[in-house]
Amino acid sequence: MEQFFQQLLNGLAVGGIYALVALGYTMVYGVLKLINFAHGDLFTIGAYLGLTLLASWNLAGVLPPAVAVLAVFVMVGLLVALIGVLLERAAYRPLRGANRLSAVVSALGASIFFENAIMLIYGARVYVYPDFLRPDFTVDLFGVSVPGVRLLILGASVALMLALSAFIQRTRMGAAIRATAIDPGAARLMGINVDRVIALVFLIGPGLGGMAGLMVGIYYGQIDFTMGWSYGLKAFTAAILGGIGNIPGAMLGGLLLGVTEALAAGYVAMAWKDAVAFLVLILILIIRPTGILGERTADKL
Amino acid sequence: MSRTPLYVALAVVIAGLPLVCNAYWTDVCVMIGLYALLSLSLNVMLGQAGIFNMGHAAFFAVGAYTTAILNTVCHWSIFLTMLPAGAAAGLFALAVARPIIHLRGDYLLIVTIGIVEIVRIALINDVFGLTGGANGIFGISRPVFFGFRIVKGLQFYYLVWGMVGVSMLLFYGLWRSRFGRALNYIKEDDVAAEGCGVNVTGYKLAAFTLGAAWAGIAGTVYAAKMLTIAPESFNFMESVILFAVVILSGGSQVGVLVSVFLFIGLPELLREFSEARMLIFGLAMMVMMIWRPQGLLPPLPRRYAMPPPQEGARP
């Protein structure tokens, strides 16, 4: 029972990270109907930028660790958001009117470009995060001692998701995003600046993805330049699982996938852990391509 | 505008290349030929039918492992394993593609990435106890052709490029046939094709199976050349390279050859930049989609002979 509880919490913490990355996929898909393959690599860039800021700027030496981590979170979020906007400007906007599959190929190219740019800048080795950043207290929860870092990661991702939900549901900009997702043409006629909405989506999605990359660095303690692909694919699976284009769906899908994977690793076989997500993905696309919360039937799917 | 001179020039260059190459460059050219074989097989589905398959390395792996297992466990001769290798890859492709072939382009792409990853993980985990886990299989023997043992790089060179030539002739015939026209129609507009009575699912499955079987045969040659195979040779990045080569080629066979030489051969010439090879790959994909989405050398439009004018017919 205790093992089950630990695996469940581990799955929720990882699932929260998946959900944050999945939000970027689902929001971009919502407004542009494009799978942003480079999103996973923006996540990796977040993890590397976090490391650079912490290590070479010696932030952790100047500020108390908790404040340093918080400051790095904000900076990484902003920097990756900026890269996201530049990516949209350079690789996707010229293809806005073109064949959809051209944009997909361009997105793949961007992904390969980013991954190799990281490799050329940082080198192909695994990087280790400074371990004093990782909070090492434990919390007693229902008689089980739980590592505090798990709860913090889960709490941070849930807080970010709630903030995003409030932004999308309560503000005028959020309403503009929702309107553009439903019908870009009509939204333009209603006086919404669609280009700005798309830029905003490319600020929020990559920003959240970059912060998720930093979380992975702190949680697992090590990062490498290829991790964007596996996390990106899993987060994409989560977005499909919840229903692509659907924001609550991405959150639900992320948490669900994280838990499924953790339980499969704990009870079935550790070596097959990475295959679980892909199997889930293939099964959903065959059985229910609209996902759990997606009610809209996608055309020609 | 005909491309016959281009083909003749390519054939002459390829036939004469080993005369000016040392052993190292001959080996490089063997690898280029292997990539050409794989890219041509991917071109059948991706270039001709527009099926976005990014898991081609999975079928290549099935072929290579079939050969390796039949050769090391059952002691079959390499050339005898070519047929089972192609059949195994084709049947595997048919089985996995059947439920997913109707998916739209970008979704199919994601699912095929999933398939190539699952195959790699299965190979590492030594599924069925036959694949040798992460170390792979070694001790594969050299191919023997009617008592003639193929050992040297030069002999492999002519074997591989001979197969490339045969494949090109075969796929050219296919392109000219009813089958090829149906695939092109599906690529342009699958709804319209379905409306005109083309069995879209059937043709897509046939193209997928044929391309995968061809990749399996390429796997046989790869296993025989390398003598050892390991799961890491069939990773997802290989699939990406093949995908990019075909997309950038534009979908004509000569385009595929040019693209293979550009993206596999050129980095060998520019050794100091070889680290940045994939970076340039990615950049090229973005730039091409913006400025030349049809690729380097798209297929020429089909030409049909006019029927001869009939006697006494009014103009």
Strand order of the largest sheet of chain A: 1-4
Total number of β-strand segments of chain A?
A: 4
The number of helical elements of chain A comes to 12
Number of strands of chain B: 4
- Level-2 CATH architecture of chain A: Orthogonal Bundle
Helical residue percent band of chain B? 55-70%
* Tally of individual domains of chain A: 1
Tally of alpha and pi helices of chain B: 12
Read across the widest sheet of chain B, the strand sequence of neighbours is 1-4
From the N-terminal CA to the C-terminal CA of chain A, the straight-line distance is 42 Å
Unreliable stretches of chain B (pLDDT < 50, length at least 5) are none
Spatial shape of chain A: globular
What's the CATH topology name of chain A? ABC transporter involved in vitamin B12 uptake, BtuC
**Largest sheet data of chain A:** 2 strands, antiparallel
Rounded to the nearest angstrom, the distance between the terminal CA atoms of chain B is: 28 Å
Sheet/helix structural class of chain A? mainly alpha
How much strand content do the residues of chain A show?
under 5%
Fraction of residues in H or I helices of chain A: over 70%
Largest interface: A-B, 44 and 41 residues
Outline type of chain B: globular
